[in-house]
Write a structure and sequence with these properties.
Helix content: 55-70%
Radius of gyration: 16 Å
Structural class: mainly alpha
Order of helices and strands: HHHHH
Shape: globular
Distance between the termini: 48 Å
Number of domains: 1
Largest sheet: none
Number of strands: 0
Length: 155
């Protein structure tokens, strides 16, 4: 099996596992929570998005990593992570602009991930950072969808 096929299979299987966990465990539990609290829990994984800056670190990823991918992924994740942290604080302390921050980080983060997904040319250069797109990105995509669903849910 070639590297692209392995990557695709791992990505797909992680999407399935995270979706099942979300459906069977997370969604029922969050359904009992008020909106601000549910969004708080869903935003937590996104506060760690600064980890994506690892794509800018030579030695962790191949020195031949396309700089366009590395720059977009690294700084896109950093931006999303910082906004998500602000949203967490705002949700925790029930600030007036909390939901606006959730919308912003969720849109920025979703666009960042959707921008990175079609860039298959970068896959062979992930090296030690392989776990990010094959394990963490599927979790982030599933929680992005859950956040949009909660934000759009009728009260």
């Amino acid at each position: 099996m070639d590297i692209q096929a392995i990557f695709g299979l791992q990505f797909l299987l992680s999407i399935i596992v995270w979706s099942l966990i979300a459906k069977w465990l997370l969604a029922p539990w969050l359904g009992t929570k008020p909106t601000h609290e549910a969004l708080f829990w869903l935003a937590i994984p996104h506060a760690f998005r600064y980890i994506g800056m690892v794509f800018l670190v030579p030695g962790v990823v191949s020195s031949e990593m396309p700089s366009t991918f590395a720059t977009l992924a690294g700084y896109g994740d950093l931006s999303t992570g910082v906004i998500a942290m602000l949203a967490l604080i705002a949700l925790r302390y029930k600030w007036v602009g909390a939901l606006a921050l959730v919308w912003i980080f969720n849109i920025v983060g979703t666009v960042d991930l959707l921008n990175a997904l079609p860039r298959q040319a970068a896959v062979p250069y992930f090296e030690a950072a392989w776990y990010i797109p094959t394990f963490l990105v599927p979790l982030l995509l599933v929680t992005h969808v859950m956040i949009f669903a909660r934000l759009l849910r009728k009260k």
